[in-house]
Each structure stands twice: as structure tokens, then as C-alpha cells.
Amino acid sequence: MKKRSLPSGELGLIEQIQRDFATNSSAVKLGIGDDCAILRPPAGCEVLVTTDFTLEGRHFRRDAHPPESVGHRCLARGLSDLAAMGATPLAAFLSLALPSSMLTKAEGRTWIAKFFSGLRALAELHSVPLAGGDTSESPGGKNALILADIVLIGYAPKGKALRRSGAFPGDALYVTGQLGGAAAELAGMLGRRKRIASVKTTEDHPHMFPEPRLDVAEALLRRGVATACIDISDGLSTDLAHLCRASGVNAEIEQEALPIHPLAARLGAKSALHAALHGGEDYELLFTAPASARMPTSLAGVPLTRIGTLKARRTSQPLMTLLVPDSGPEELKQGGWEHFAKPSRNAKKKAR
Amino acid sequence: MKKRSLPSGELGLIEQIQRDFATNSSAVKLGIGDDCAILRPPAGCEVLVTTDFTLEGRHFRRDAHPPESVGHRCLARGLSDLAAMGATPLAAFLSLALPSSMLTKAEGRTWIAKFFSGLRALAELHSVPLAGGDTSESPGGKNALILADIVLIGYAPKGKALRRSGAFPGDALYVTGQLGGAAAELAGMLGRRKRIASVKTTEDHPHMFPEPRLDVAEALLRRGVATACIDISDGLSTDLAHLCRASGVNAEIEQEALPIHPLAARLGAKSALHAALHGGEDYELLFTAPASARMPTSLAGVPLTRIGTLKARRTSQPLMTLLVPDSGPEELKQGGWEHFAKPSRNAKKKAR
């Protein structure tokens, strides 16, 4: 994050961020204010990098999401990618473009302050310093939108990071937490007439304030028991398909085993199942371990549920199968989110 | 960069990028295709990180810039930040949001292919692998714009990276290459009636194809002679002010010493001087060294010019002074670019 000229505008914003996010992290040798930040990862570790957009009208709606939620989710997306690989966060970088009118009007300044407050609360929870980034006025004149891109840098012991590609036939499939809660909460938010002006707590808001599973991931890495891992950001069916393809296996899911989030359960059985299988942004972890491995019922305070088993890859068989009670096996198709897919497919999820 | 669902859209784009940017860099242990990339920086080195937006209508115009230039400049911005600190690039990450119509229409696909061709040519020149990023449809419907954010990860020996803050009173001030060329070329481009459809060579195009000074920076670091360094991305007057403030010094510039780019010289003396002092995006380096240090006339094939001297900080004196021949000292004020400044200040530079 570079300092530019006038206190009135961008420089003022950068200086505010610099004050609010002052870091005493020993891993950040130089933070905001020079051409680059300087990081010092622990010796013997590899460096992990992920970047994630948070674009108004695509990943959030200003008329539906409280700004604290937008800031929280912006950081959570990157943290969850680190968790998916068992990495520990080292630093975050934020590129943020704002409509110029937001900096001059009180309403806009309040939005920005709340956005950073949401981002900072999650950053502090996981001791992640904000070490730099970029700022800009967002283009488009009156149509200008809020545009953010978060970069997370993490570390993991050499060769130990969890990948999507390490699973074997016979491995058991696990998920953390509960599924479908984010999709259920989002559906409720979009059905409201009024925007949610304030939120008292970040707990129990799976869409607005998802909890990246960093502690679970670090515990998994320490135990050395997981063979593959991915976070459920695009929906279980989509992310499981990625894991199966990367590992060269098929998967069988037991429908009855799926841990349905109470918010999803309220929608009725059919919608709840759809939310659990295809609703995105739960930010839980989907991981595999040898079936013989002893797995606790919870890790770092988060429940673990065995939801299925991996099978040898047979192209004559579906990549993913759902074992439906009283009915039998059905092919499980990907129903997740793809940004460039045809509008009709994604129409219901526009706020993502 | 995560793989999502359908080959028709985003996944197709990611797979294309993956093929085109296949890397055999030993520092990239895992590239595009998992939740994070895994990098292995050399032992004993610090990791440097910089992020830079490239937003349509703000940093480039689709009707004025050839797509190869947009891709080149996108990467050049980040590489120049690494050069400013004497770092060696390890990997680049690109977050790219595109209007959905670009993926379905031939014209759009051609634009994207040329954008990546420009980015790839510069990446290959500096052996920088593209190791990941994010993709999205850009929001705004018919008003959707091309939005890019480039992340560069580099490395430098522990404690050796060049900072803005290391200069002392008495140090000599140097610049690489020539100044004002980028502003002069941009003015010419915006004055044209027709868009530049194709460019035969990337040489001698200081605005469209700036050359980040990585080789000079690495040579400076090896010599251990520079006390501070910054890249001239916002204009000499703005970036010199940053260096002076960070180092706690004043500066004196000799107007006659400024190496004016031939494209700027053609504009006449007054405009040329303005372009050299305040025109942004030359992406040359501004660095300092003890006045007693022997400095070659060129480094890594790039001319070095001594343009002034640092003085002790006196608040009664201007931060920066310009020594004008036949006239005497004048205060040099910052005239560079700030994104959130009032529109009138920046009106002439909208394409940046």
C-alpha cells in the first residue's frame, strides 16, 4: 500500500487504515507505507497465497448486507482458503476501490468505517495483520461500485500443506460444522423488505459472518491424519467434485449423515437437502482420512461428521453418488456456483 | 485460483490460463488449481508482497489502449514495486473480473487473448510464473467493466531490501532511464481519433509498455550502495516527496540535470519539464547513495543520472527545491496523481 498525495482523499484513507491496523506481528518486518510489505515466514515453512474478489452486486449487495458483514466475508473468503490447506495466516493485503462519493458523504464514510470494523474484528480473532494493499477510486461515474480483492499469505511446514489431490479410494469423507446454513440465511435476507441495519452478534450468522475453520485445519495438520482437504465455498457438490477429480476417485455420500444447519432445516426437508448439497459459502471444510483412522467427534470445538466414502475411479460410474434412504443410490450432480455460467443457472444466487 | 464448475465459462478461462502459463519454476511447488498456491522462497530471504489494481476507465481505456498494453502494464505495475525494493520476483497472482459478454463474443475473446499475450510476454522476460488468482464476472450488467488486481510476491536477502526511509542528508539523488516519456506518449494516444489496433514492438513505448527496472534494482542491491529507493509511478515530484518524508530529509533537484525523454522533449521545453517532474507512470527508479560512492553511468544497460542532492530537514525550507538555471531556487510542489483527489485535479489524467 503506497502513500500518495493528499490527506483529503486516498492518503487519508490509507493513514486511517494504517492507524487502525497497527501491527506488532514479528512476521511483518515492514507493513503499510512502502512499495512492498516485507514478511518473514518461519524457517522451514512454505508460503501459501490466495486471492479472492469481493465485488458489489456479485458477492454482496449494498442494500442487503450490513457493511460489517461485507468486511468480515471479504477476509473470511481468504482465511478459509488457507484453512483448506491447513495453513496458518501470516498477513492479509486488501485492494479496495470505492466510489468517490463515498469518501465525501457521511453515509459513505460510515459504510467504510463499518466495513473495516467487520474486517478488523475477524482479523484480530485470528491475529492476522493487514500489511498492505492498494486503494483506488472505482470507475464508472454514477454507476461506480465497491470493489475489493483480498490476498492472504500463510505458511505451513514444508510438504505438509493439505491438497485436494491426496485422497485414496476407501478413505472416509468428513465435513466440519453444519451445511446449508449460509444459503438459508441468504434466502431469508433477500426475502426481507428492509436492509438489516445492525447486527448484535456475529455468532449464528452462517451467511453474514461465516467462521473460517483455521483452528480445525491446524489441528488436522498436527494430527497428520487428513489425506486431502478443500473448503466448501461453492457448495458441497461442486467442491466434492473438485476433490474427486484432483484425487482421481469417485465418492459416495450418505444423505442421512449430512449435518443440516438448523436454519436450513426450517426450510423443509427438500429445500434443506438442496441447501446442504448445493448452497455455497458455508466455508466448512471437506476432508478425507483413511477409514481406519480414529477421528474425534469434534476438533477445536467444531463437530466433525463422517458423510461418506471414496471409491476407486470408474468412468462407468457417476463421479459422485448420493445414497438416499428407502430409495437407493442416485447420481449427485454439481449444483454449485460458477461465475461465468449462463445467467439463468445462477439467477437465484445473485448476491453471492 | 480455484477450479469451479462448467467448462463453458470461468473454468474454461482458468484452464486456458493454466495451459498458457504452465510453469516449471522450482519456487512454485503448487500453482493454479487448488485453494492456495504453494511457494518456496530461497532460504535466508524475506518475502515481499505488493498488490496493484488495473481498472478500466481508471488505469486504462478500452478505446485507447491496445489489450496487449493493458496486460503488460498490469504486470509492470507490480514488478516495478518489487524493483523499487531491490527484490527478485517469485510469482504473480491475477484477480480478473470480466463482463460476461466478453466471454461469449469473438471480439471479447480476442481482447482477453491479447491481454494475456501482453502479460505473458513480460512475465517470460522476467521469468515470473503466474501461480494463481481469482476470476469473476464483473458486476454492473451493461455497465460492467474489466477489473484486474495483480499481486507480486518477491524475495530479497534478509534485511537488504531497499526502503524509502534509508536516505541521509548529503546523499546524491539518481534516476534510471529518462523521464516524462509515459505522460508524453499518453497525451499523444488520447489526442488520436482512432484506437491503436496493433503495436509492432513493445520497445520505445514508455506509456504502453513500460520496462520495470528489475535488473538495475538487483544490481544496486548486489553493490550495496543505495541508501533508499522508490519507483516513479506517481510522478517524480510525488514520489520524491514520499522518499523525503520517509527519510526525514529535504531535496534539491537540478532542473538542467533531468534526463528528458525524447517523446517529452518534442512537446516543447515547458511541457517537457512538466511531464518529467509530474507525469506519472515512467516506472523508473529514484534512488539515493552517499555522494562519495562511485556510481557508473549505466547499470544493467540502463543510464543512471544524478539529478540532485538531499539536505537536512528544515521545516523553514521547502521539502523539495528545484534549481532553475538563470533564475535560482524555486519550491517544487507535488503534482502527481492521487486517486481520491478532487476530479478537477486529476481530470487530465483520467486514462491512468
From TrEMBL, chains A, B:
<protein>
    <recommendedName>
        <fullName>Thiamine-monophosphate kinase</fullName>
        <ecNumber>2.7.4.16</ecNumber>
    </recommendedName>
</protein>
<dbReference type="Pfam" id="PF02769">
    <property type="entry name" value="AIRS_C"/>
</dbReference>
<feature type="binding site">
    <location>
        <position position="52"/>
    </location>
    <ligand>
        <name>Mg(2+) 1</name>
    </ligand>
</feature>
<feature type="domain" description="PurM-like C-terminal">
    <location>
        <begin position="169"/>
        <end position="261"/>
    </location>
</feature>
<comment type="similarity">
    <text>Belongs to the thiamine-monophosphate kinase family.</text>
</comment>
<dbReference type="InterPro" id="IPR010918">
    <property type="entry name" value="PurM-like_C_dom"/>
</dbReference>
<feature type="domain" description="PurM-like N-terminal">
    <location>
        <begin position="33"/>
        <end position="151"/>
    </location>
</feature>
<dbReference type="GO" id="GO:0009030">
    <property type="term" value="F:thiamine-phosphate kinase activity"/>
</dbReference>
<feature type="binding site">
    <location>
        <position position="337"/>
    </location>
    <ligand>
        <name>substrate</name>
    </ligand>
</feature>
<feature type="binding site">
    <location>
        <position position="81"/>
    </location>
    <ligand>
        <name>Mg(2+) 4</name>
    </ligand>
</feature>
<feature type="binding site">
    <location>
        <position position="59"/>
    </location>
    <ligand>
        <name>substrate</name>
    </ligand>
</feature>
<dbReference type="Pfam" id="PF00586">
    <property type="entry name" value="AIRS"/>
</dbReference>
<feature type="binding site">
    <location>
        <position position="231"/>
    </location>
    <ligand>
        <name>Mg(2+) 3</name>
    </ligand>
</feature>
<feature type="binding site">
    <location>
        <position position="164"/>
    </location>
    <ligand>
        <name>ATP</name>
    </ligand>
</feature>
<dbReference type="InterPro" id="IPR036921">
    <property type="entry name" value="PurM-like_N_sf"/>
</dbReference>
<dbReference type="InterPro" id="IPR006283">
    <property type="entry name" value="ThiL-like"/>
</dbReference>
<feature type="binding site">
    <location>
        <position position="81"/>
    </location>
    <ligand>
        <name>Mg(2+) 2</name>
    </ligand>
</feature>
<feature type="binding site">
    <location>
        <position position="81"/>
    </location>
    <ligand>
        <name>Mg(2+) 3</name>
    </ligand>
</feature>
<keyword id="KW-0479">Metal-binding</keyword>
<feature type="binding site">
    <location>
        <position position="35"/>
    </location>
    <ligand>
        <name>Mg(2+) 4</name>
    </ligand>
</feature>
<feature type="binding site">
    <location>
        <position position="52"/>
    </location>
    <ligand>
        <name>Mg(2+) 2</name>
    </ligand>
</feature>
<keyword id="KW-0067">ATP-binding</keyword>
<feature type="region of interest" description="Disordered">
    <location>
        <begin position="325"/>
        <end position="352"/>
    </location>
</feature>
<keyword id="KW-0547">Nucleotide-binding</keyword>
<dbReference type="GO" id="GO:0005524">
    <property type="term" value="F:ATP binding"/>
</dbReference>
<feature type="binding site">
    <location>
        <position position="51"/>
    </location>
    <ligand>
        <name>Mg(2+) 1</name>
    </ligand>
</feature>
<comment type="function">
    <text>Catalyzes the ATP-dependent phosphorylation of thiamine-monophosphate (TMP) to form thiamine-pyrophosphate (TPP), the active form of vitamin B1.</text>
</comment>
<comment type="pathway">
    <text>Cofactor biosynthesis; thiamine diphosphate biosynthesis; thiamine diphosphate from thiamine phosphate: step 1/1.</text>
</comment>
<dbReference type="GO" id="GO:0009229">
    <property type="term" value="P:thiamine diphosphate biosynthetic process"/>
</dbReference>
<feature type="binding site">
    <location>
        <position position="281"/>
    </location>
    <ligand>
        <name>substrate</name>
    </ligand>
</feature>
<feature type="binding site">
    <location>
        <position position="50"/>
    </location>
    <ligand>
        <name>Mg(2+) 4</name>
    </ligand>
</feature>
<dbReference type="InterPro" id="IPR016188">
    <property type="entry name" value="PurM-like_N"/>
</dbReference>
<keyword id="KW-0784">Thiamine biosynthesis</keyword>
<feature type="binding site">
    <location>
        <position position="35"/>
    </location>
    <ligand>
        <name>Mg(2+) 3</name>
    </ligand>
</feature>
<keyword id="KW-0808">Transferase</keyword>
<feature type="binding site">
    <location>
        <position position="134"/>
    </location>
    <ligand>
        <name>Mg(2+) 1</name>
    </ligand>
</feature>
<feature type="binding site">
    <location>
        <begin position="133"/>
        <end position="134"/>
    </location>
    <ligand>
        <name>ATP</name>
    </ligand>
</feature>
<keyword id="KW-0460">Magnesium</keyword>
<dbReference type="GO" id="GO:0009228">
    <property type="term" value="P:thiamine biosynthetic process"/>
</dbReference>
<feature type="binding site">
    <location>
        <position position="233"/>
    </location>
    <ligand>
        <name>ATP</name>
    </ligand>
</feature>
<dbReference type="GO" id="GO:0000287">
    <property type="term" value="F:magnesium ion binding"/>
</dbReference>
<dbReference type="InterPro" id="IPR036676">
    <property type="entry name" value="PurM-like_C_sf"/>
</dbReference>
